[in-house]
Design brief:
- The chain is about 25% helix and about 30% strand.
- The mean pLDDT is about 95.
- It folds into three domains: about 5-70 and about 110-235 and about 405-455, Bira Bifunctional Protein, Domain 2 (BirA Bifunctional Protein, domain 2, 2-Layer Sandwich), CATH 3.30.930; about 255-380, YbaK/aminoacyl-tRNA synthetase-associated domain (YbaK protein), CATH 3.90.960; about 475-565, 3-Layer(aba) Sandwich (Rossmann fold), CATH 3.40.50.800.
- A hairpin with a 5-residue loop joins β5 (about 95) and β6.
- The protein contains 15 helices and 29 strands.
- Strands 3, 7, 8, 9, 10, 11, 12, 21 and 24 form a nine-stranded mixed beta sheet that branches. Strands 16-14-15-17-20 form a five-stranded mixed beta sheet. Strands 26-25-27-28-29 form a five-stranded mixed beta sheet, sandwiched between helices.
- The two termini are about 25 Å apart.
- It is α+β, with helices and mostly antiparallel strands and about 575 residues long.
- The structure holds adenosine-5'-triphosphate and magnesium ion.
């Protein structure tokens, strides 16, 4: 592409609204532009990168014998009603009416559509197993669209679905997708971990893993063992049951009221009473699907809402408001398990404790010497908290858990028969009996990947694309296009490299060198060839990402080096 003809609107400054580095650099490099919150245009450079990612995804999925199809974004509401998700998906589902008042949704995902297709087309075990995928635009009215392409409301996803007759076949499909995802992310150059994840609202039986790219901006936290291969999303990461301290034979004291005016938080309590956070029982009030519930964890621990939700089988979980707390006979900041007429979930670490200090459910008061089991009963005792860095790994003897931030770039999920039962996708087995098809679903955020790669590959000047991803593999820059020798040699190189199959950007603009180099940094091609004063002698300055500095070489040698860099012959 000749840069004089290209739409590459680079920006000197990062727009104020862009918090994430990837968002800033993709705007500054002229890759994307925002149309509305969470809705972006991919400019020519952005689209090229997207297509390069898609090429990798297609190659690796075809290698796993998955077949590509393309389904509509416009989906009849009846399908969503039939699966039961119309009600539970919530405001993230964009709903609309056609001119005949028929209800539709813009697809956030395609389980309903594809299961209906399978229900119509697959009838026998002979047609199974089968894995289908598409690369398509998805719509989700996210509560908080943010960080540019990392969380959009319209975004590009690869979604795949596997259909099997037996559980072994279904597991096999899952393993093949898992392996394909590892190959895809490796080719994208990403540092990532596959982690155990919570099955949440997708429902289904069996396992699920998320593929997390390591990045500080990531909205997820993952726990990784220092010794074994245990890795899990913090939502799911298990805490090892606490070691019960040496038994203390001293008689237990009776509960004692403490006057604690204005002391609401754990930090304030620690100071006011001079105790450690772990001596405190922290009580949080929630409304779970319209029912109140209190969760009690140790003062130094955090409630894990995902674990609470799954213990209750709840769809939604919201912290109680001050008004709701008052209706429940307590007050936020002074809530405690003693005398509270709300079902209590007690974390194991609380239940194993000898005693603790808790809110008294009356303003400005706490209670000391609260003994679990004696002073309050629990509806459930279990693991309701986040693991913490440095805790022992639940799966091996030697390891400790470390916490990292991650961006979820992919997700593999064993769905079981949830959708095939709901949408009646059945086949006849060898014995002629009707059976529900066993499913799996597998997503990769293509546009999220674009931003994620940028998060891992940049410096202060701009993006530093890995080779297979870069919009242009080579950037050829004549320093001055007014110099006939420079322009001629640059054009020759451009034609030569293109004839060898490389994607090349030729900066044939009549701009100052400083402007050209700044733009080249922002665009971020892995190989740069500068054609300057030595053009008369047929020499150019070659540089690439792997070798430091620039080298003055003959033009033919520069072409050789490009081929060497990309492993081409
Ligand atoms: P998240 O927890 O980040 O909201 P999710 O669990 O809702 O993700 P899935 O439904 O599993 O995501 O979607 C599959 C993939 O699509 C995700 O792994 C992610 O890469 C991508 N994705 C999901 N939501 C968005 C979004 N709003 N913008 C861009 N990519 C997204
Ligand atoms: Mg989501």
């Amino acid at each position: 592409m000749r840069q004089s003809q290209a739409l590459i609107p680079t920006l000197r400054e990062a727009p104020a609204e862009a918090e994430a580095v990837s968002h800033q650099l993709l705007l500054r490099g002229g890759y994307i532009r925002q149309l509305a919150s969470g809705v972006y245009s991919y400019l020519p450079l952005g689209l090229k990168v997207l297509q390069h990612i898609e090429r990798i995804v297609r190659e690796e999925l075809e290698a796993a014998e998955a077949q590509e199809l393309l389904m509509p974004a416009l989906q009849p509401a009846e399908l969503w009603q039939a699966s039961g998700r119309y009600a539970v998906y919530g405001p993230e589902l964009i709903r609309l009416q056609d001119r005949h008042d028929r209800s539709f949704a813009l697809g956030p995902t395609h389980e309903e559509v594809i299961t209906t297709l399978i229900q119509q087309e697959i009838h026998s075990y002979r047609q199974l197993p089968l894995t289908l995928y598409q690369i398509q635009t998805k719509f989700r009215d996210e509560r908080r669209p943010r960080f540019g392409l990392l969380r959009g409301r319209e975004f590009v996803m690869k979604d795949a679905y596997s259909f099997a007759a037996t559980w072994e076949e279904a597991d096999q499909a899952y393993l093949e997708m898992f392996a394909a995802y590892e190959r895809i992310l490796r080719r994208c150059g990403l540092a990532f971990r596959a982690v155990q994840a919570d099955s949440g609202a997708m429902g289904g039986e069996g396992g699920t893993h998320e593929f997390m790219a390591l990045a500080d901006i990531g909205e997820d936290t993952i726990a990784v063992c220092t010794s074994c291969d245990y890795a899990a999303n913090l939502e799911k990461a298990e805490a090892r049951a606490p070691v019960v301290s040496v038994s203390n034979e001293a008689p237990l004291s009776e509960p004692e009221m403490l006057y604690t005016p204005g002391v609401r938080t754990i930090a304030e309590l620690k100071t006011a009473l001079g105790v450690e956070a772990q001596a405190i029982f922290k009580t949080l009030l929630y409304i779970a699907d319209d029912q109140p519930v209190a969760v009690v964890v140790r003062g130094d621990h955090e409630v894990n809402e995902t674990k609470v939700k799954s213990a209750l089988g709840a769809q939604s979980l919201e912290l109680a408001t001050p008004e709701q707390a008052a209706e429940l006979g307590t007050q936020l900041g002074f809530a405690g398990p003693v005398g509270l007429e709300v079902p209590i979930l007690a974390d194991t670490a609380v239940w194993e404790a000898r005693e603790g200090i808790a809110g008294a459910n009356v303003p400005d008061s706490h209670v000391a010497h609260v003994v679990p089991g004696r002073d309050f009963a629990a509806e459930q005792v279990g693991d309701f908290r986040n693991v913490q860095a440095g805790e022992a790994c639940p799966h091996c003897e030697a390891g400790q858990l470390q916490l990292h931030r991650g961006i979820e770039v992919g997700h593999v999920f064993k769905l079981g028969t949830k959708y095939s039962e709901a949408l009646n996708a059945r086949y006849l087995d060898r014995q002629g009996r009707e059976q529900p098809v066993i499913m799996g679903c597998y997503g990769i955020g293509i546009s999220r990947l674009l931003a994620t790669i940028t998060e891992q590959y940049h410096d202060e000047q701009g993006i530093r694309w890995p080779g297979e991803i870069a919009p242009f593999q080579v950037h050829v820059i004549p320093v001055s296009v007014k110099d006939g020798e420079q322009l001629r040699l640059a054009r020759e190189l451009y034609a030569e490299l293109r004839s060898k199959g490389f994607e090349v950007l030729l900066d044939d603009r009549d701009e100052r060198p400083g402007v050209k180099f700044k733009d080249a940094d922002l665009i971020g091609s892995p190989v740069r060839i500068i054609v300057g004063k030595a053009a008369g002698e047929g020499a150019v300055e070659y540089s690439d990402r792997r070798s430091p500095g620039k080298q003055l070489v003959q033009a033919a040698e520069a072409t050789e080096r490009v081929m060497g860099y990309y492993g081409a012959n």
